[in-house]
């Protein structure tokens, strides 16, 4: 196998990419949506309200948080909602020149959904804004959707919500969590090898802080500086015993089309590689810095030549969710550790020719044995992708 063949052989489908914080699709995902339908149905049957517009208004003004359920029902993302409400609140005016937000129209300022829920809860003009929000959802077909679901029983509604509406909503939310889950997974493999990482707690909370920025001309962590062409951000840094930067990791996980972003990142990776190489040419070989790629996802198939094919040659090595065992193998090869005895491959996943590829290409040069189907009792092991890493 060459590099791209290895990539496609081991590529992970979306469901194999780990989710951070257990952001799985929950069985109660549609609870709030069903409550919205039931509340609407009750108000319609009461005949106390003059119109469906008045009902939607009352639902919002009585329980502002309900707008998060309304947006899901009409297929609007959280970002789309708060950007739309930002615009609506900014341009609103009446004969009294009422402003729904403190800034002037000439100085539009983005607000998030929590801000608008608070506005609907406590603003002196909450009734005015609630009518604007009601009109927003009505224009997107909310009444028709609620009328349709009101004619169904709860047992009929649940599978529709769970399999169509809620699933779409949660899948959108999960996209970023899968990337962070992958970062946490490889950080845990590295810390299990006894090495120091930056950020320090990435193995516990991959979303706790910002990705560190490194000046590649000095290999020092610096504040973000868009004007410094040598300054690039990385998902993880591995430090040597002397605290020097030894390995920089870029993580690019694309379960769907990477688009222009993926093309730009692949070009950036090549630039990073050239700058690291220039730095290494000036220093002691024992202080050499390496670039590792955490790359995975079927989305790369949308434009392989413009993205993944270009990147693979720019990395000193790369690993995927299924091949995280390559991390300790690489670390032993470059001399950062000397504690790995061997690898036990999952023969249900790897065929014989694939195992031979990994043994010949990676294990043997690092002095690590293939312990598949051998007795490893008494040895510490960790799971790293589709293999066990066996410590000495």
Would you mind describing this structure in some detail?
The chain is α/β, with parallel strands linked by helices. Helix content is 45%, strand content 13%. It has 13 helices and 12 strands. The protein has helices at 3-10, 31-46, 52-62, 67-73, 78-91, 113-122, 126-139, 142-150, 154-192, 259-280, 308-312, 326-333, 352-363; strands at 196-198, 213-215, 220-222, 231-233, 236-239, 245-253, 290-296, 317-319, 340-345, 369-370, 381-383, 387-391. It has a 5-stranded mixed sheet with strand order 1-5-6-7-8, sandwiched between helices. Strand 6 (245-253), helix 10 (259-280) and strand 7 form a beta-alpha-beta unit. The relative contact order is 0.11. The model is unreliable at 22-27 (pLDDT under 50).
Topology of helices and strands:
Elements: H1 3-10, H2 31-46, H3 52-62, H4 67-73, H5 78-91, H6 113-122, H7 126-139, H8 142-150, H9 154-192, E1 196-198, E2 213-215, E3 220-222, E4 231-233, E5 236-239, E6 245-253, H10 259-280, E7 290-296, H11 308-312, E8 317-319, H12 326-333, E9 340-345, H13 352-363, E10 369-370, E11 381-383, E12 387-391
Parallel strand pairs: 6-7, 7-8, 9-10
Antiparallel strand pairs: 1-5, 2-3, 2-4, 5-6, 9-12, 11-12
Helix pairs in contact: 2-3, 2-8, 3-7, 6-7
